[in-house]
Structure formats: structure tokens, C-alpha cells
Amino acid sequence: MDSTRPAIKTRNLTRKFGDFSAVDNISFEISKGEIFGFLGANGAGKTTAIRMLIGLLTPTSGEASVAGFDVFTEAEAIKNRIGYMSQKFSLYADLTVWENIRLYGGIYGLPMETVKAKADDLLKTLQLSDARDKRIGSLPLGWKQKLAFSVAVLHEPDIVFLDEPTGGVDPITRRQFWEQIYEVTEGGTTVFVTTHYMDEAEYCDRVSIMVDGVIEALDTPSGLKEEFKADNIEEVFIELARGADRSQN
């Protein structure tokens, strides 16, 4: 991907369901290698936005490009250039660790020799070599999470989308997961991560905060705290949510 071109660019991107605007005219640009946090409460529109960007949901209006491809006309090309991990981790519980890696390696079009080599490396890195032939369903939640992320970037995508990937895991495991994120961005991969954990905003290069389908704030974590005279991003979010409530009343 051209490093001078935004990894992701949206302009007035909108998705309606009937008269309800789940995502309402959002605009932003994300640079190559950036960790972009897409924050908001449950129901704020984060998942709808991410589904449009990865080519699973057609926008109602607006513009968007991902890895240089148009979301309206080149959705299939986008899918070949991205990785994706959801809160449910996207792994098959009844398959073994190796079978999951082999399956996704095939989906991503990697040669079997490459899949085998990458599997050996990632299992060693994750200290999961002894679990190679264990079924995913038998693994602790933290292991599933780390493995799912590794599988999502197995094909070295330009961009990896993480949709609330740390839901339900303990703070230590969440921190370890973010260490994995840092490692892939060092190689130039762009990370787009949705979360409702406000403390995770501190790990991002920039953060947007969504309230009721609208991006109410977008800046670096330090910039947001300075603008709202807050000690942390949670305080910023609470202030924005209160403002939205007041405007509706």
C-alpha cells in the first residue's frame, strides 16, 4: 500500500436502517501504521461502521476507501488486504489450534509451506506449541484471544480491524494483547480498533469518540484530555455523553 495515501478515509459516511441513522455522516482519515481507537458505548454505531469499512455492509451514503479501494465498488479487493477479529474471536471451537491456522491460511490464499512455517513461529511466540493439537474450545479465554489476533494477521494485511477484541478478559491479558498490537504496527500494519474500554484509548495514537452514531470528538489521547480538561478519556466520554443527553431533552 502507498505510504503517502491514507490507510482509511471516510467522508460523510452514513448507514441508515429505515429512519434510524446507526452511523451519521462520519469523516476521518487514518495513516499507515497508525493505531486508531474507535470508542463508544454499546449501540453507539461502532460495529455498523466497521462492517461498512470491511465490505460486509453497504453504506447508505457518503464515501470511504480502505487500503485504497472504494467500499462501494471494490469490497472484494478490500477483503483481500485486511485482517479482522471480532469479540467472539472468529475461531472454530471444535477445530484444533493447528486446524484453525491451516483453515485461515487457506482462506487468505497462503501456500501450505508458508502456513506451516508461520504456524510454528506464532505458536512458539505465544508459547502454545504444546497446545497445537488441542481444540480451541478447551483453551482459556486469553489464549483464544491472542491466537485469534495472530491468525487475523497471518497473511500480513495492510490493515487489521479489531471489533471489541478484549471484551470479557482480565486487565493483564488485555495489556498483553495490546503488546501484540504494537508489534504488528512496527511492521507498518494499520490497526483500527473498536472498544468500550475507555482506558484502552491511552494505547492508541488517535481516538475518536462516537455517541449515537456521530463522532463527537477526534484527537490524540493527550489532546482530548487537554481539550476537555480531563484526567482520563473516560471523563471525556462521560462529558460527551451528558452533552448528547442534554441536547435530546
Uncertain regions spanning at least 5 consecutive residues:
none
What percentage of the residues does DSSP assign to strands (E)?
25-35%
Percent of residues in helices: 25-40%
Judging by the overall fold, what is the CATH architecture of the largest domain?
3-Layer(aba) Sandwich
What average pLDDT do the residues reach?
Answer: 91
CATH class of the largest domain: Alpha Beta
Structural class: alpha/beta
The best one-word shape is: globular
User: DSSP helix count?
Assistant: 8
Count of discrete structural domains: 2
CATH topology of the largest domain: Rossmann fold
Q: Specify Rg, calculated over alpha carbons.
A: 18 Å
How far apart are the first and last residues' alpha carbons, in Å? Answer: 46 Å
Number of E-type strands: 10
**Spatial strand sequence of the major β-sheet:** 6-7-8-3-9-10
Spell out the CATH superfamily of the largest domain. P-loop containing nucleotide triphosphate hydrolases
Order of helices and strands: EEEHEEHEHHHEHEEEHH
Characterization of this structure:
A hairpin with a 2-residue loop joins strand 9 (206-211) and strand 10. A 6-stranded mixed β-sheet has the order 6-7-8-3-9-10, with helices on both faces. It folds into 2 domains: 1-81 and 160-168 and 189-249, 3-Layer(aba) Sandwich (Rossmann fold), CATH 3.40.50; 88-156, Helicase, Ruva Protein, domain 3 (Orthogonal Bundle), CATH 1.10.8. The chain has helices at residues 46-53, 75-79, 97-107, 112-125, 141-152, 171-186, 221-227, 233-248; strands at 8-17, 20-30, 35-40, 61-66, 69-70, 82-86, 159-163, 190-195, 206-211, 214-219. It is an alpha/beta fold and 249 residues long.
